[in-house]
Specification:
The protein is α/β, with parallel strands linked by helices and 455 residues long. It has two domains: 249 residues, Rossmann fold (3-Layer(aba) Sandwich); 115 residues, Rossmann fold (3-Layer(aba) Sandwich), CATH 3.40.50.1100. The strands form four sheets. The chain has a seven-stranded mixed beta sheet, sandwiched between helices. A four-stranded parallel beta sheet has the order 8-7-6-9, with helices on both faces. It has a two-stranded antiparallel sheet with strand order 2-3. α3 runs antiparallel to α5. The longest helix is centred in the C-terminal third of the chain and has 20 residues. The radius of gyration is 21 Å and the shape is globular. The site of pyridoxal-5'-phosphate has 17 residues, from α13.
Length: 455
């Protein structure tokens, strides 16, 4: 019998998150205050985040216990299944063994609830009644709304107006879960009203939505702010994915040679690869390859300089050391909305700088070609984001065929594409286009990098 699914029993679900900061060969560069250029402290972040998450952001403990209440919610969809892609292997006629860990079975359809649930819990424990956040196409807003429903925390989502109007389904999800979702810029904040006064037709941007959510949180005692990617504590919560996968690969009696994932802010892939990269750091598995895949339309790791930059387009957040295309750079409107980010998680960037993870960029049309091949063999309609690393996995499997090597390839599959069918429609009708690397725009944006006093 060909075994295609590896189930982890609920009683064997990992009970700790893995914190890479304990094992880094060099510590992370400090986060700097945008005004003073000095390292930020807990007091700077306290108006926006609960103290427990601020502590996790800088913790050096290797293992952090997952609170029992968070485990209980995780168990409404976890452990997720590890699949063996026999049908894809056969279609590619490759000796490679291809596995994928699928996060599309969470209620919100992606990995994002892994951190949304944890963040809601810690806010609730510290007496926070309400959380404000921003969302682009709605993946993060819907995941946080689902978590808010489970913990009875009120969620307010500022959704970029153009997506709010063009992509109603995720807004409807948020409302079904009880959240309040408004188009940004909105009349609900000072900054939103100011933008609308100047330009009533403004269709919004992620930067504006962040500004509104931050203003909302900073101006109310009962409200905090929440981010769905990039920050250390978000990556920490996602390590449940890789910790489960380690147990499941052991059940399958294999160890990966190559792990591929897509990176927007870096959280889903880091959640898979951080629990493996420690074997590379310790010297136990020096040949393990970890490949980060990004879109050619927003190639931060493959084309950006390693520099201090703001995390948001508005330039309000602390300065993070990362590979960046400049915080004012706005990527082309590719369908992989989750990958349209100018920067990258500082942890992912640090590991890339240290030579522990590789990066490559893929064009949009080729990623959908791979996604459709995956759909026609494995059956799953993937979100446009994981189509990026499915493309890279297929390329590696073809290389194995040419070299006659039976490598084990692990795909970090971040979610389903049932709310992205318009993108498939565009691909299937031949209307999908590629976007070249926007060299001139990036050059302009990089001129806006903040000046940082040399450390
Ligand atoms: C948000 C999202 C991503 C990108 O975010 P990361 O923080 O890089 O993981 C990737 N895939 C899916 C399905 C998403 O919803």
């Amino acid at each position: 019998m060909e075994r295609t699914m590896y189930f982890l029993d609920q009683k064997d679900m990992p009970t700790r998150w893995y914190n890479i900061q304990a094992d880094l060969p060099e510590p992370l560069p400090p986060v700097l205050h945008p005004g003073t250029g000095k390292p930020v402290g807990p007091a700077d972040l306290a108006p926006l985040f609960p103290m427990e998450l601020i502590k996790q952001e800088v913790s050096q403990e290797r293992w952090i216990e997952i609170p029992e209440e968070v485990q209980a919610i995780y168990r409404t969809w976890r452990p997720t299944v590890l699949h063996r892609a026999y049908r894809l292997e056969k279609a590619l006629d490759t000796p490679a063994k291809i596995f994928y860990k699928y996060e599309g079975t969470s209620q919100a359809g992606s990995h994002k609830p892994n951190t949304a649930v944890a963040q809601c819990y810690y806010n609730k424990m510290e007496g926070v009644k309400r959380i404000a956040t921003e969302t682009g196409a709605g993946q993060w807003g819907s995941a946080l709304s689902m978590a808010g429903a489970m913990f009875n925390v009120e969620i307010k989502v500022y959704m970029v107006k153009i997506s709010f109007n063009q992509k109603p389904y995720r807004r409807i999800l948020m409302e079904a879960w009880g959240a309040k979702c408004v188009a940004s810029p909105s009349e609900d904040t000072e900054i939103g009203r100011r933008i609308l006064r100047e330009d009533p037709e403004c269709t919004g941007s992620l930067g504006m939505a962040i500004s509104e959510a931050v203003e909302d949180a900073a101006s109310r005692d009962d409200t905090k702010y929440s981010l769905g990617s990039v920050l250390n504590h978000v990556l920490l919560h996602q390590t449940i994915i890789g910790e489960e996968t380690r147990k499941q690969m052991e059940m399958a009696d294999v160890y990966p040679d190559i792990i591929v994932g897509n990176i927007g802010g870096g959280s889903n892939f880091a959640g898979q690869f951080l629990p493996w990269v420690r074997d590379k750091i310790s010297g136990a598995k020096p040949d393990l390859r970890i490949i980060c895949v990004e879109p050619t339309a927003a190639p931060s790791l493959t084309k950006g300089p390693y520099a201090y930059d703001h995390g948001d387009v508005a330039g309000m957040t602390p300065l993070l050391k990362m590979y960046t295309l400049g915080h004012t750079f706005i990527p082309s409107p590719i369908h992989a909305g989750g990958l349209r980010y100018h920067g990258m998680a500082p942890i992912v960037c640090h590991l890339h700088k240290l030579g522990l993870v590789e990066a490559r960029a893929e064009h949009q049309v080729a990623t959908f070609e791979a996604g459709v091949q995956f759909a026609r063999t494995e059956g799953i309609i993937s979100a446009p984001e994981p189509c990026h690393n499915i493309k890279a996995a297929i390329d590696e499997a073809i290389r194995c065929r040419e070299a006659g090597e039976a490598k084990t390839i692990l795909i970090a599959h971040s979610g389903h594409g049932y709310l992205d069918l318009a993108a498939y429609d565009a691909y299937l009708s031949g209307q999908l286009v590629d976007y070249a690397y926007p060299e001139e725009e990036v050059k302009e944006a990089l001129k806006q990098l903040p000046k940082v006093p040399s450390a």
